[in-house]
Amino acid sequence: MDSDSKVFVVSSDLCSGCRNCEIWCGFITGKRRGFAPDAGHIHLHSDMEGKLNIPELDCSGICERNEVGEPICVEMCPTGCLIFTNREDFERKRTSWEKARRVQPVFKLIVPWKYPYPWRELRKEEL
Amino acid sequence: MTWHGWTGTILRVDLAAGKVTKEELSRTMTRDFIGCRGLNTAYLYSEVGPEIGPFDPENKLIFGAGPLEGTPIGMGRVSILTKHPNRFLGEGGAGGHWAAELKFAGYDVIILENKAASPVWLLIVDDQVELLDAAWLWGKDTKEKHKLIRAKTGISGIHVASIGPAGENLVANAKVQFTLDHSGGKGCGTIMGDKKLAAIAVKGSGIVSLADGTRFLETYRKFRQTFDLKSTKDLFVPSWSFNSANMLLELFNENGWVHAHNGQRGFFEPMLNDVEYLDRYVVRPESSFCCPFPACGRRYEIKEGLFAGTGGDEREVGFAQAAPIVGIASYPHVIKFRDMCNRAGLDEDQAMYSIAWAMECYERGIISRKDTDGLELRFGKADEFLTMTERIIQRKGFGDVLAKGVDEAARLVGRGSERYTLSIKGKEIERMPQRNGYQMALALAVCECGPDHTRWYPPYPPNPKSIPSDMELPFDPYSAFQTRSVEDKGRLVKWLYDSRAIVESLPSCVYMIRGLLGIDMSLWLDLYNSCTGEEGDVQEFLKIGTRIVNLERAYIVREGFRREHDTLPRRMLEDPIVEHGIPPIGENLSVMLDQYYEIRGWDQKTAIPKEETLRNLGLQIVADDLKQRGLLA
Ligand code: SF4
Ligand code: SF4
After folding, report:
1. B480 versus B57: which is more confidently predicted?
2. Alpha-carbon dihedral B101, B105, B110, B116, rounded to 10 degrees
3. Any idea which ligand is nearest the CA of B294?
4. How far apart are CA B136 and CA A104, in angstroms?
5. What are the chain A neighbours of B205 within 8 Å (beta carbons)?
6. Which of B144, B178, B328, B538 could link B140 by a cystine bridge, Cβ 3.0 to 4.6 Å?
7. Which pTM value belongs to this model?
8. Contact A11/A107 with Cβ under 8 angstroms?
9. B271 C-alpha to center of ligand 2: Å?
10. Which of A18, A41, A76 to mutate to test the pocket of ligand 2 (most atoms within 8 A of CB)?
């Protein structure tokens, strides 16, 4: 996969508003001196009523990567809402998620690329 | 002085004089008590003695964030403390984002003193701290208050702690309600209402500084690994990650863990179904500040039918676990109930268990329609249940009786109704099993702030495979978790209390105590040290937890609490769970209390810490205080 063509994709219907991305970006951007929500390149926009969370990014993936090649905002995102990949890969992921959702409502909350189906293999016709 | 972790500043607010002062935090106090729950207790102990009544202006209300708050370990946890209307420690924690904002604004603790003459609210935006008139907020429910404050300040990301009508009307165990349906501090909302403080709104843009960021990140990655589904050794992690407390439903019914019909039964036939809940009501995840679980917190909504449009955010709720207490099997009703409590700042347990008590009394003929203002208050009557809840909030008719708390209500009603209250130290219990979980029974009985599970949670054994062979545990993991034997319970409960006291003082969420994190404190210590620059070892660290619990005990001892108050509802002590063949606890409680006081170094007859115990923990000053008051020989 060509890493240059990677972009951030956000599935905001999965964003828990936890701010892990925001806080960790501020940590890396601020040279690990501490945690400051305003210091980074990603900010959570929330309606504060639990109806809407959107992480807003102003970044093309510039910071250091962990051993599997993810930037820290993606690594720390617990829901899998924030991913850094190319378009095609994202489309593939999104389709598999839609399918998984139809079989098990727990996929309203998690995504198969972060948490593989834990209870049973999907049957062929479900794929 | 340079502070890492802590901001080093506390806010002292005199509500009567309208004066705000900033004080420097004391390094000795943070070393001894860390922050949050521990530090709050130290302040309350030295500033609010037994001569001060809960509703005196001299009682204080303290909001504390600890050194790790504002880092991703803090989870937004705040600890709120006051002298509870029943005189024990009115302590409660809440999650969300509020405490993290307080740290970013530059403060560790807020101490509120005296009473305002008319309603006020406190606005904190970094350096700007103002006490403002709140006539326009008073009388509104918590969600409206939050909305109005967002509109007035024009700050979209502002987080609010407020009371609702329950707190304003001084309902006995009213809680403090935070943005996005986080709440805590049963009784703190009552005192906040008494002080006429409507809300505290916070927004911060500063930094929580780290002593060693690189080491913190390394340790944090290890911390996250313990929840990794592929490598976790804790059975609860996957289910908790996906389905929060609702996954326990079947388990609860099978094991008789529900308090169906006010605890008369351990099994509830039309038990609500967790899959239905997930399918019909859950919308998407919604969590506290930097929570690593994807779905411990979820947004729910009723989309159609009865109560359509009602929604909110839940964490540990376990709607379906609560419903059997009053015999209800309707999601719309329990969801509506939850929403009413959140808006009013009413403690769910108070409402649930006091109405369940009234239902039992009604069915036994102790009370009738005459007492209940015409309501047929029987188990399973869902609409009546909601009506009664509203009357508690508004303190109307029989609702005013229940608003005083179930013990006081039983005292007023009399006629033998006292036998059926499910309360400890005068506070309604939580949904924790007791007759079939002796570790939980003991832990609830000895709690210094009324029944509170967060002080010792989780109470289940670590996976034996996850215990390193060279680790020495202070209890035997096999016998300690035998649910209906007294063996080793004292040692286990001491360990649970001491270790959780540390976690709540850092703070972090006790639900993070999964797998190894429940038994191995070294990872927590690493996080604490790399954040603050402290250098203590594990032994020192654990001693802090023991010190905090002893100080809390000394506090309630000073208020008159003794061994006889460390007890359980008579239902748990005297009645069996018939369907499951589970006997009552009976004398076993006394045996476990003996163990617990002994291992604690507290007098077995009185439950007062011995002088030597206090001295060894560096609490000589507390021992002297108790001696002066004639409480120590
Ligand atoms: S890639 Fe790095 S710099 Fe960019 S938003 Fe993510 S954490 Fe911040
Ligand atoms: S870390 Fe993920 S879930 Fe959390 S706020 Fe950011 S994008 Fe949303």
Report:
1. B57
2. -100
3. 2
4. 46
5. 36-38
6. B144
7. 0.95
8. no
9. 34
10. A18
Asked whether residue A1 is assigned to any structural domain, the reply reads no
Q: Helices B489-505 & B36-47, crossing angle to 10 degrees? A: 90
Phi, psi angles (nearest 5°) of residue B583: -75, 160
Average pLDDT along chain A: 84
Which domain range does residue A68 map to? 6-126
- pLDDT tens for each residue of B456-494: 987 776 666 667 777 778 888 888 888 899 999 999 999
Q: Report yes or no on A46 lying in a domain.
A: yes
Cβ(B402)–Cβ(B385) under 8 Å? no
Å from CA of B229 to ligand 1 middle: 25
Q: At B539, which amino acid appears? A: Q
Question: Which token pair is B458?
Answer: 């989780």
A18 within ligand 2 shell (Cβ under 6 A)? yes
Residue A80: inside a domain, yes or no?
yes
Are B505 and B34 contacting, i.e. CB atoms less than 8 angstroms apart?
yes
pLDDT at B244 over 70: no
Encode burial over A87-116: b for 16+ CB neighbours within 10 A, e otherwise.
eeebeebeebbeebeeebbbbbbbbbbbbe
CA atoms of A113 and A111, how far apart (whole Å) = 6
- Residue A14 covered by a domain: yes
ipTM attached to this prediction = 0.93
B386 near B340, Cβ under 8 Å?
Answer: yes
Closest alpha carbon to B12 in B55, B47, B38: B47
**Domain total of chain A:** 1
